[in-house]
Specification:
Blueprint (H helix, E strand, L loop, with lengths): L1 E8 L8 H12 L2 E6 L5 E8 H10 L10
Antiparallel strand pairs: 1-3, 2-3
Amino acid sequence: MTMRLTVFVSGIVQEVGYQARVIDMAIALGLKGMVVNLKDGRVKIVAQDEHEKLEWFECSIDIKKCSTCS
């Protein structure tokens, strides 16, 4: 069953390569959707696919889990 995930990410997520990282992960998983920088500094992410892929994607876009942040 196809599902949709909508996420609003805040913090230091604009102009640091975050959007490109999210797009790369979405392409690797074959997800459909969009990533948009919002005027208030947040990033809006909409992704659509199977539930299992969306769960993995949701965990992977958490900036705190970034290997360069540890």
